[in-house]
Design goal:
This protein is an alpha/beta fold and 214 residues long. The protein has one domain: Rossmann fold, CATH 3.40.50.1240. It is built from seven helices and six strands, in the order E-H-E-H-E-H-H-H-E-H-E-E-H. It has a six-stranded mixed β-sheet with strand order 3-2-4-1-5-6. Helix 1 runs parallel beside helix 7. The model has no long low-confidence stretch (mean pLDDT 95).
Length: 214
């Protein structure tokens, strides 16, 4: 059996000139116009590669739900968007709603760099869920999706994607496993393990990977 999963980060939530802050589970921000364009670009990648997801999963926050619905509309997929609470962004505790400058003032620049560059959680700041719980939820979801033959699109947020990367052992050259807004990760399972065919790829690269894989 062959299973394919595309993990996708939602699009932009800040307009040009907005104060950019750490956005977690408590910051249910809408997509900007550019964020919607990013969703359409992912949809075009599917259409151009002639791939239609059999399932579409999304976290419950509007930035992921709307992104998923926009991709679905662009594709013309019949599959509904399924909401999965295991895909909700982390609650970043005292860092939530703060700019990078404010986080550095609170916890130190080294703590901020450790999270951004290596996905190391800061001492003294509680992220929810815990690393153990987030990794367990990610593993459970991937095990479930391994039983589905076909293609599944999963739309979530940056923190969750970092845990998927850690779990699946993405390329060591990208130790943070960060994914830019509107970018995707392509996973393939044909045997006992998932293989990462692309991590943090833009829609054009996603199109090429899908065309070459399916």
């Amino acid at each position: 059996m062959r299973s394919v999963v595309i993990l996708c980060r939602h699009g932009n939530t800040f307009e040009k000139g907005d104060k950019v802050v750490m956005v977690g589970a408590r910051e249910d921000l809408p997509l900007t116009s550019h964020g919607l364009e990013q969703a359409r670009a992912v949809g075009v990648a599917f259409v151009s590669s002639k791939v239609t997801p059999a399932r579409i999963l999304s976290g419950p926050l509007q930035r992921t739900k709307v992104f998923a619905e926009q991709v679905r509309s662009e594709i013309g997929a019949s599959a509904p968007v399924e909401i999965d609470e295991r895909l909700i962004e982390f609650d970043y505790g005292a860092w939530s709603g703060l700019s990078n400058e404010e986080i550095a003032a609170l916890s130190g620049q080294s703590a901020l760099d450790a999270w951004q560059e290596r996905s190391e959680r800061p001492n003294g700041i509680t992220f929810v869920p815990s690393t153990e719980q987030a990794r367990t939820e990610a593993a459970a979801l991937m095990n479930e999706l391994a039983k589905d033959e076909g293609v599944c699109l999963v739309v979530t947020s940056n923190g969750r994607l970092r845990e998927f990367g850690q779990l699946l052992n993405a390329a060591s050259s990208v130790p943070s496993y960060k994914v830019k807004t509107g970018h995707a990760c392509l996973l393939l399972r044909e045997g006992p393990k998932w293989r990462i065919l692309g991590w943090d790829v833009d829609p054009e690269r996603l199109k090429n990977l899908l065309s070459g894989t399916l």
